[in-house]
Amino acid sequence: MQYSVGVEYALHCLVYLIDNPEDSPIGIKDLSSFQGVSETYLSKIFSKLSKAGIVSSVPGVKGGFKLSKSPEEISFWDVIEAVEGSKPIFQCKNIKDNGYLYREKGCTPGTSCTINLVMLSAEEKMHEYLREKTLSWLNKELENVIPKQIREDTRKYFSKSTI
What is the pLDDT of residues 121-145, one digit of tens each? Predict the structure, then answer.
């Protein structure tokens, strides 16, 4: 299982929106320029985030995006699901029912597929973990791992671009 790089771009960009004043949304042009990614690509990601209710779009010359919820209410899983969709990682094709005994002997399957049950359980544990990690948590973690000057320069970049 692999999530697209769109999830990473989304999480990074959402962190930039946390400290931005409510009345100063950040535009896609500024976000894409800062990240070094095309506006078109980032627009597609933000369209999905908007549809999921994670961000809201502010129209106009000084428009852009802002968080629709508090950072405490937005989990990693919310972002992953918005960008990637809710398709399960493991997709059981119920191949056991095509096995020799079922096919040739007329046996009927009596139990759920154990492999599918294990995979679904593992996926749910991962979802639970990702639901526990919020944008607020991420922002606090970044304060500990990114040098203070870089965090300040990032905030200045976006406050300058919204003036």
Answer: 999 999 999 999 999 999 999 999 9
Write the pLDDT tens digit of every residue in 73-91.
999 999 999 999 988 888 8
- Give the number of other Cβ atoms within 10 Å of residue 79's Cβ: 28
Q: Cα dihedral angle (120, 123, 124, 126), rounded to 10 degrees?
A: 160
The answer to the question of residue 62 being in a domain is yes
Q: What would you measure as the largest C-alpha separation in the chain, in angstroms?
A: 75
How many domains is the chain partitioned into structurally? 1
Asked whether residue 92 is domain-assigned, the answer is no
Distance of CA 84 to the CA centre of its chain: 7
Six-digit token string for 137: 């948590």
Taking only Cα atoms into account, the Rg of the chain, rounded to an integer number of angstroms, comes to: 21
CATH of the domain at 61: 1.10.10.10
Element (H, E) at 57: strand 55-58
Which strand (E) or helix (H) includes residue 66?
Answer: strand 64-67
- For CA atoms 56, 139, 12, 19, the dihedral sign is positive
Total-model pTM: 0.84
